[in-house]
TrEMBL record:
Any one Pfam family match given in the protein's UniProt record, by short name: vWA_Ro60
Biological process according to GO: proteolysis
MF annotations from Gene Ontology: metal ion binding; peptidase activity; RNA binding
Keywords from the UniProt entry: Cytoplasm, Hydrolase, Metal-binding, Protease, Ribonucleoprotein, RNA-binding
Family: Belongs to the Ro 60 kDa family.
GO CC annotation, single: cytoplasm
Transmembrane segments annotated in the record for this chain: none
Keyword Acetylation tagged: no
Source organism phylogeny: Bacteria, Pseudomonadati, Gemmatimonadota, environmental samples
Signal peptide start and end residues: none
Listed name of the protein: Prophage Clp protease-like protein
Superkingdom of origin: Bacteria
Entry-linked PANTHER family: 60 KDA RIBONUCLEOPROTEIN SSA/RO, RNA-BINDING PROTEIN RO60
Boundaries of every TROVE domain copy: 29-369
Length: 495
């Protein structure tokens, strides 16, 4: 008897459908790799865009097409419930869930220009919550031009971005982020025409717009002291590194506020390090090593390690785990992603970054289940994580596996490799190879373990098939992949 129900049935478990075809009667759609899967709803696509973005595209789809697809999902959410969309944009941005803030800024600009009156008002009111720095503001100004002009609402929102800030914080933003994307604070202030709240704000605005020196005020304002210190360093090209370092400590200046020639002196960097913001610290580890501040056994290396071990400070600074992971991979490599500069990594700092990666996740609660993880190690996983040069999807998946290993005591790791299952693509086969990943391993050890494996087709049904064939007791299957399953004779939902 021919078993017709292997190919046509109303109950998924009775079906065996190749992943190159949709399950009969389902709403599956083709993915970018040639397989079929279920489409995400618009709100899930909004979340995915806000967290992952589209920069650089993926192995299977280019940046332009991916951006157009995701922008369409954002527009659909704005049309259906714009206020809810704005609320979600703020939640993802403010929680630090995304490695980069640009997708949230772009989506907020869309809402400010494409939504109904309530949505536009909500988007403009939310601007300070999403655009938290001068750089964020300039990015948003560049994005919003594509969706609306400088009407009263935009002028009011941008003006409030400046006037609502405490005086020293305002001065800090004006000095640290003077211009980006063809925009400057002078441009924004001239277009917004904010009404200053007091003489100090008035003086700061006038200095920025008129490009002059500070007016003399009979006040010991910390905001004006910050500006005067930065101006004094720029006005004296012969200032000694020791004097510059003292001024950095006294006024709490940042790197961007200093003349470039001063940044080649170790004593200046030592002073900057003392109160360097967390994100800037992670970004400048290579420079601190190149100029000799970070060295084996140095007090600076101990101080950096102590700061990286402060999990609460990491989370307050919204440092995303992937940013830590990217910094770790770049720093440990000893050279820039594009070959710019070289340094000898300090082991103490490498170890601290490795530990900080886990701290950045916060308190991960174990599910208490028997977990089987399968890692995609195929060629497509060598593509960069969206928007992060130098960090491959394969490295990121190995890192996530280590997080699971550290939180779930009953776990079992495998990787998709060449094996006994045929693939729909000639020349490929699929299989699962057990991995002995331990929570006591260093991240670079885990990455080396998966790099040496022969990759095969990514068949996301294999974990279920192997568990059934071998009698493994599994409560939860987790697959880390670039999300384009295509190889195999049966869909994961059927397996």
């Amino acid at each position: 008897m021919m078993d017709f129900t292997r190919y046509v049935a109303t109950r998924l478990r009775a079906l065996v459908t190749p992943q190159s075809e949709p399950i009969p009667g389902s709403a599956q759609v083709p993915n970018s790799a040639g397989g079929f899967a279920w489409a995400l709803d618009k709100w899930s696509r909004l979340d995915r865009f806000l967290v992952l973005g589209t920069e650089g595209g993926t192995y299977y789809i280019g940046e332009r097409e991916l951006t157009v697809q995701n922008a369409g999902a954002v527009a659909e959410c704005i049309a259906e419930d714009g206020v809810r969309a704005v609320r979600r944009i703020v939640e993802v941005s403010a929680s630090g869930r995304a490695p980069k803030n640009d997708p949230a800024l772009f989506a907020l600009a869309m809402a400010a220009g494409m939504g109904d009156a309530a949505t536009r008002a909500a988007a403009l009111e939310a601007l300070p919550q999403v655009a938290r720095t001068g750089t964020h503001l300039f990015h948003w100004l560049q994005y919003v031009r594509a969706f609306r002009g400088w009407g009263r609402g935009v002028r009011r929102a941008v003006g409030a971005w400046y006037t609502a800030r405490p005086e020293r914080e305002l001065a800090y933003q004006l000095l640290k982020y003077p211009q980006r994307d063809g925009w400057s604070h002078r441009d924004a202030l001239r277009l917004a025409h904010p009404v200053p709240r007091g003489e100090v704000q008035k003086t700061l605005f006038a200095r920025t717009v008129q490009r002059g020196s500070l007016a003399e005020l009979d006040t010991d304002s910390p905001a004006l002291a910050l500006v005067r210190a930065a101006d004094a360093l720029h006005a004296d090209p012969g200032v000694s590194p020791a004097r510059a370092a003292a001024m950095v400590r006294e006024a709490r200046l940042t790197r961007e506020m200093l003349p470039t020639p001063l940044l080649k002196h170790p004593e200046v960097w030592e002073a900057l390090l003392e109160e360097m913001p967390f994100t800037a610290l992670v970004r400048n580890l290579a420079t601190l090593t190149r100029v000799g501040v970070l060295a084996p056994g140095s007090d600076a290396a101990d101080a950096v390690a102590a700061r990286l071990a402060d999990g609460d400070a990491l989370r307050r600074a919204r440092v995303h785990p992937v940013q830590i992971l990217s910094a770790l991979r770049t720093y440990a490599r000893g050279r820039g992603v594009r070959g710019r500069g070289a340094w000898t990594p300090v082991a103490r700092v490498v170890d601290a970054l490795d530990a900080a990666f886990y701290l950045a996740f916060g308190a991960v609660e174990p599910a208490g289940r028997r977990v089987m993880l399968a890692l995609d190690v195929s060629g497509s996983m060598m593509a960069n994580v969206l928007g992060l040069e130098g960090l491959s999807c394969r490295e990121a998946s190995a890192a996530m596996a280590l997080v699971t290993a550290a939180t779930e005591p009953r776990h079992f790791f495998t990787a998709f490799t060449a094996g006994r299952y045929r693939s729909m693509h000639r020349g490929f086969s699929s299989g699962l190879t057990p991995l002995s990943i331990s929570p006591r391993q260093r991240l670079d050890d885990a990455v080396r373990q998966v790099e040496s494996l022969p990759f095969g087709g990514t068949d996301c049904a294999l974990p279920m098939l192997e568990a059934m064939n071998n009698g493994w007791m599994v409560d939860l299957f987790v697959v880390y992949t670039d999300n384009e399953t295509w190889a195999g004779d049966v869909h994961p939902a059927q397996a």
